[in-house]
Specification:
Length: 149
């Protein structure tokens, strides 16, 4: 049956209802329909500087990523420019996901993460710099100089 505009009314109505249902999966401009309801993993939220360059805003871990991302998108509306999701198989344990989250936090150093940072994860930090001193020329230095290098 055609309507007054010449197209099939039934198909138009079905498409309208499907679009109406699909749009409910969007949140603040992000298409969360791509994420299964019970997907677990780690997500990285990006934001943009005034000059347009991106930085890591937040790293998180969740067993129900879609709901968690919805919360973040609402809380940080207008700030988040991109979401990157790393999903895990159902076999992955909470401990494994937490270690991976801590690793990514320490690697990327997001601005909003205050836990699971180096101070929570690592005992200490040691930085070794090249000194030019080795077993062949150590006699040129005093013990105090060697200890300070």
């Amino acid at each position: 049956m055609e309507n007054i505009f010449g197209s099939n009314l039934r198909f138009d109505a079905i498409e309208y209802l499907n679009k109406k249902h699909y749009i409910k999966g969007y949140c603040k401009g992000f298409n969360l329909n791509k994420i299964d309801e019970n997907l677990n993993g780690i997500y990285i939220l990006y934001a943009k500087e005034e000059d347009g360059s991106e930085y890591v805003l937040y790293v998180g871990e969740s067993i129900k990523m879609k709901g968690r991302l919805t919360t973040h998108l609402r809380n940080y509306e207008g700030l988040i420019s991109k979401v990157w999701a790393l999903t895990f198989s159902k076999k992955t344990t909470k401990t494994e996901r937490t270690y991976m989250e801590k690793f990514i936090i320490n690697l990327l150093q997001p601005r909003l993460n205050t836990t699971n940072t180096k101070k929570d994860f690592f005992e200490s930090q040691i930085v070794l710099e090249y000194t030019g001193i080795d077993e062949d020329n150590y006699e040129e230095y005093s013990l105090k100089e060697l200890e300070s290098k």
